[in-house]
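To: structure desk
From: M.T.
Subject: fold request, one chain
Message: Could you run this one when you get a chance? Sequence is below, nothing fancy, just the single chain.
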Amino acid sequence: MFSSQFEVTIKSQLNKFNKYFAAVAQTLYGERYALKVDLTTNKAGQRIYKFNAFNVNFSSGKKQGEISCFDIAYTQFADNEGIPCFHFLLNDKKELMHDNQLIKIGQLVEREANVQFVASILKDKLPPALNKEKYFVVSLSQSDKLFRIEHGTPDRPRTSVDAVLKAPRSPKGTKG
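Reply: Done. Structure tokens follow.
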């Protein structure tokens, strides 16, 4: 695993991946991102490969964008290499990104028919260009929640998390 031949293989694959990573980052940020790999020794004295991005960003919004660039690039790389992978990307905290980057991600994944970008974003944080029904798979609100717990019926009263957490439990060994 730490032979010179294996190191050549890692660097070759990383170079292939970096072409996708740089292209996606160029589209979204006008910058070319890349990963590098170093062979280091951990605290236990074991040799490990450590992967890092060349670019160092401290903005949380830009960091979210870098993660999206990586995810989209990896999907493209994996498809090209015949590596099985998911074709949907689950994302959180994307409201930290600038509107123009969210729009560019939307445009990029719309062109890439093989990638579905799933993000949980408050509607008021969406840029107007993305605030369209055609982009929504599921919309939730205070009056329409994921498990429909806000709709009580006479034989099944409204439930809340407090009510579920405070419900009495059956003693062990009994059904109830």
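Reply (cont.): The beta strands are 35-41, 47-53, 88-91, 116-119. Let me know if you need anything else for the meeting.
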